[in-house]
Amino acid sequence: MSATPWGIEARPVEVEVDVQTGLPQIQIVGLPDAAVREARERVRAALRNCGFDLPPRAVTVSLAPADLRKEGNHLDLAIATALLAAHGALDASYLGGRMLAGELGLDGAVRPIRGALAIADAAARSGCSELLLPASNAAEAAALEALPARGVLALPELVAHLCGEAPLPAAPGDREWAPRGEPAVDLAEVHGQELPKRALEIAAAGGHNLLFVGPPGAGKTMLARALPGILPPLSRLEAVAVTKVHSLVADEPPAGLLRHRPFRSPHAGVSPPGLVGGGPFSRPGEASLAHSGVLFLDELAEFRRDALEALRAPLEDGAITICRARARHLFPARFQLVAAMNPCPCGHLGDPRHACRCPLPLVERYRARISGPLLDRIDLHVEVAPVRLAELRERECERSCEVAERVQRARERQAARFPAGHATPVNASLASRGLREHCRLDTAGQRLLDAAFERLGLSARALTRILKVARTIADLAGADGLAAAHVAEAIQFRSLDRRLAPQVS
Ligand SMILES: Nc1ncnc2c1ncn2[C@@H]1O[C@H](COP(=O)(O)OP(=O)(O)O)[C@@H](O)[C@H]1O
Ligand SMILES: [Mg+2]
C-alpha cells in the first residue's frame, strides 16, 4: 500500500507489480503524473546502487484504483519493495498490511515528502498496521497517534526492517511543531487604546471579524499582532486539520502538531490564487493557511480588488473549492479576518491633531476600493485614534495572559451551546436556529436594534452579526440573557462609517 495526495488529505493507492520474460522495461499504469512516471528511473537506479541486482524482465506496475490520478513522489518506496517481492528477492507477505510512502534518491536514500500527516490518516483508515516513511517525516505522521510510524533513511534499512532482521523504532507521537514566525505582541506593550483592546477581546472570544481604521502610526498593526496571544490554543481536532494544510507548503516537514493558532499576514500585492489557493499546483492559499486562526490584511485598501472579492466565498462557507482537470478539492478556510486601513489616502481624516487635505472624490475612491459586501462581513469596525502622551507614559497595562483567561471562559460558555465535536463552537458560527434560540432580545434591546437598522442603514446580514457580537459581549460578562447594554455596545462597533464620513459634503 501507498498513498497519493488529495487536496489536504491523501488517498490510499495499491501498488501491484507483475514480472514477465520479455523486453526489459518498466511500465507504470493507473493515471500516473509525470513525477510518478519518473519513479521508474529512480527506483531502477536505487535498487542497483543498493546491491539488489534484478534480472532484466518486462515489468508492469499497476496503481489502483486505476481512475484516481496519482501525483508526486510518494510511491517510490512501495514500487521498489513490490519489485523486490515480485522478483522473489523479498517475501511478499512482509508487505501485507503496511503502507510505504517516500521518494528514493538514485543512491537509495529516502527523501522527504509532503503531507505525511494526511498519509498517516489514510493508512489508519485503510486498516494498515504500520506506516514506513522518510525519517524526517516520521514525527509528523506519528503525531496522529493512530498507528506506528517508522522513519527510514535508506532502502537497505527498509528491507532489513521488513524481513524482521533489524526492526525500526516507532517515532514518538507527542511532538509539537512551532515554526519560526514573528513573535506575538503582548497587550501590555500597547498603551491606552482601551476601545480597540476591548474590540480585540470581543473578537477573540466570539471569533468575530474585525477592522481597525486610523491614522498611520496609531498602532493598528501592533494591536492586530496582539490577537494570537489572547486566543485559546488549538484543540487536537483543529491542530490535525491545521497541520495537514501547513504540511503542504512548509519549508521543512512539520516536527509534530501545530498547537498555536496560525497568524497569516499576506502582502497587499497578493494575487487571488495566492490568497485563496489554486493555480497550477493546487496549493492552499493564505486563507487556508489561516484556517482556525487569523488572516490579517494590513493596509486593506492597498489589496487587489479581485483578491478581496475572492475572499467572499471562504468568509461565507469556511472553505474553498479548487477545481482541477479531474478533481475538486475542498480546502478548509475558516479564519478570523482582521483588517487595518487608513480612513483616507493621507490617513488623517477624523484626526483631531492633523487636518486631512484629501479632496472628497479621492476619499470616496479610496473607500470604494473595499466593497460593501466585504465590509458587511466584518462584525467589529473600530476607530484607532493616536495614543495620547499621558497614556504612553502610563506604567502597567493588562497583560495578554489575563485577557486570554476571560476569552477562554467566554469560549467555554459558548461551546456549551453547540453539539459536542462541533468544529468551531463560537458565536460567529451560530446558524439562524442558534441565533433565534440564544440571542432573544428584550423590548429595550429590540427597540435599540430597530433604531440602529434605520439610522445606520444596516443590511439584514449586519443585523445578525450585531446580534452575534452582542451574544459574545454577554458571554464575556457571564450573562445568560441579552440585555440592551450588550446590544448597544455591539451597535457602537458598526457605526464607524458615520463617524468617519468625510466632513466636506
Ligand atoms: N498605544 C501604543 N502603545 C505603545 N506603542 C505604540 C502605541 N501605538 C503605536 N505605538 C508604537 O508605534 C509603532 C507604530 O505602530 P503601528 O502599529 O505600526 O501603527 P499603524 O499600523 O497604525 O500605522 C509601534 O511599533 C509602536 O512602537
Ligand atoms: Mg500599520
Bound molecules: adenosine-5'-diphosphate, magnesium ion
Number of E strands: 18
Please count the helical segments: 22
Report the major sheet: 5 strands, parallel
Give the terminus-to-terminus CA distance.
70 Å
Mean pLDDT, rounded to whole units?
91
Characterization of the model:
The protein has 505 residues and is of the alpha/beta class. It has 22 helices and 18 strands. A 5-stranded parallel β-sheet has the order 13-14-17-11-18. A 4-stranded mixed β-sheet has the order 1-2-4-3. β8, α5 and β9 (149-152) form a beta-alpha-beta unit. The longest helix is centred in the last third of the chain and has 17 residues, at 460-476. It binds adenosine-5'-diphosphate and magnesium ion. The site of magnesium ion (MG) has 4 residues, from α8.
Key words describing this protein structure:
single chain; 505 residues; alpha/beta; 5-stranded parallel sheet; 4-stranded mixed sheet; 22 helices; 18 strands; 37% helix; elongated; binds adenosine-5'-diphosphate; binds magnesium ion
List the topology elements.
Blueprint: E1 2-6, E2 9-20, E3 25-29, H1 34-37, H2 39-49, E4 58-64, H3 76-86, E5 98-100, E6 103-104, E7 110-111, H4 116-125, E8 130-134, H5 138-142, E9 149-152, H6 155-162, E10 176-177, H7 194-206, E11 210-213, H8 220-225, H9 236-247, E12 257-258, E13 263-264, H10 272-276, H11 286-289, E14 294-298, H12 305-310, H13 312-317, E15 319-323, E16 328-332, E17 336-341, H14 360-368, H15 372-376, E18 380-383, H16 389-393, H17 400-415, H18 432-438, H19 443-455, H20 460-476, H21 484-492, H22 496-499
Parallel strand pairs: 3-4, 5-8, 8-9, 10-12, 11-17, 11-18, 13-14, 14-17
Antiparallel strand pairs: 1-2, 2-4, 6-7, 15-16
